[in-house]
Amino acid sequence: MARWFLRLGAAGLTVSGLYAATRIDPNDIGLIRIGRAVATTAVISYDYIVSLRGLEYGTDKYESIKSQVHRRSARHLLDLCRANRGTFIKVGQHLGGLDYLLPEEYTSTLKILHSQAPQSSLHDVQQVIQEDLGKEVTQLFASFDEAPLGTASWAQVHKVVLHDGRTVALKVQHPKVQRQCAKDIILMEVLVHSVSWLFPDFSFAWLVDETKKNVPLELDFLKEGHNTEVVAEMFKHFQFLKVPKIHWDLSTSRVLAMEFIDGGQVNDREYMRQNGIDVNEISQNLGKLYSEMIFVNGFVHCDPHPGNVLVRKAPRTNKVEIVLLDHGLYQTLTEEFRLNYCRLWYALIKTDKAAIEKYSRRLGAAELYPLFACMVTGRSWASITKGIDQIPVSKTEDVEIRIKAAKYLSSINELLNNVPRQMLLLLKTNDLLRGIETSLQTRASASSFITMSRCCVRAVSRYEKDASKSWYGRLKISLAEALVLWQISLHEILLWVKASSAWRWVSGNWAHEQPLQ
Fold first, then answer.
1. Do 260 and 167 meet the contact criterion of CB atoms below 8 Å apart?
2. Which alpha helices (DSSP H) does 441-470 contain, by range?
3. Are 173 and 128 in contact (CB under 8 A)?
4. Which of 115, 148, 290, 312 could in theory staple to 263 by disulfide, Cβ–Cβ 3.0 to 4.6 A?
5. Euclidean distance between CA atoms 386 and 4, whole angstroms
6. pLDDT digit string, tens, across residues 65-78
7. The pLDDT of residue 359
């Protein structure tokens, strides 16, 4: 059966040759896209069934063969995403960020899609521009860079210069995406249900549901432009944040013109070294931004992969800035969910096991609350119970988490199908942010937990003050808030003192002068 589907895929390649002389891309033909997806699913399923048949579960040989199958299957999936593009690229990117769920062979392979998505032809790009803006490219722009600055699942970005001399980043949607996405989602739903029937532990219905909900939002570039302006206004008090301005006269649902801002990717330590940018400052400021997004405002940018977060020194002021791009995917948290999530994180930081269980259950984790806490933090249960702000993350712990993720795959999928839908994008966001921190070597730093603690306290206090009906009640809440924030600041000062060279000198001399017992 798998061979038959492979022949179907080969037939698709033959068709591509027949269409080479025309403007029709064979990848846009429904039969070829369906055949390729079905063939890939069949090949991957067949590989797992045949390769692992007869092997004793848990043995070294079983694990070795399974890893090889994982690697082959991940490459097949990568090839499928690149060929079918659009929705397949977006889902592949999401899968590449599921470090808490998928084997490393999958995540490391599919992460490539964040930076190496296929691009549309120049003819297709210019056709979308002309259809939406009503003029030829040469009439609209003084210059148009043919090579895209970057390519993503839904669109690619070109650098253009307006006739008045301003430089603009022009985001142009891939031409066939809107027409194909609904059919692609139906196809994925059928394939996911088929795989779930073959492998009951491998249930990704929640991923299809999320894709159905989010795709229409991401495909409307006018909505993205609106999100951009909302965020710029919401966080204008952060001097370190730079959000591009939108050129509405050159923007439609498929074309978005925005201020061109240059910079290095947030995970590029070498760029930061060359430009005198402090890695710790970037990590702290990114933590401040996302803590306030999640805990205080409940309006969260849910796609912070390195291509969407740049760093630079502002040309005029020379101050370090974080540039936040791609505002198509946001999650608006309900007040109930935001406060429960806020209290859960505060309990995790304070190592309050009773509160961890209480708020995990409120968020739908039920008896699986220890597993849920591990997924939220990216830490082992042992580290959580000892204090995630006390124990640094180690490679051993990361390996342990991956091994246990494979062991508890069915329980993880059960959790993902039961928690509020808002949680799914937050888990993705958490993983992407942890990936950035890992690249910067600042993961689980004390400063990040201090920032989160402050935001959690502020968020809960604001809610309680709004709910209070008397000035005396509000005064008590304000005083309690001030006291806790003062304690957090004192703790921060103590950490700074302990990290200082003077403290190390005093500690070293004191230890040296102590008599041997």
1. yes
2. 446-467
3. yes
4. 312
5. 54
6. 999 999 999 999 99
7. 95
